[in-house]
Amino acid sequence: MAAITFSSAGATGHSAYHAATAVPPSFKAFRICRGERVRAGIANVSLDELTPGEVVLRSAYAGLNYKDALATTDHGNVIRHFPRVGGSDVTGVVVDSTDPRFRPGDAVMAYAGGLGVDEDGGFSEYVRLRAARVMPVPDGLDLLEAATLGVAGFTAALAVHLLQESGMRPEAGSVLVNGATGGVGSMAVDMLSRLGYRVSAMSGKVDHDDMLRRLGAAEVIRSGSIEDCAKPLERARWSGAIDSVGGTQLAWLTRTVQPRGVIASVGNAGGNELVTSVLPFILRGIRLIGVNVSFYGDLEATLWQRLATDLKPAHLGESAEIVALDQLPDRIGRMLAGLATGRTVVGFQRPHGIAFTD
Question: Are residues 133 and 162 in the same domain?
Answer without folding.
Answer: no
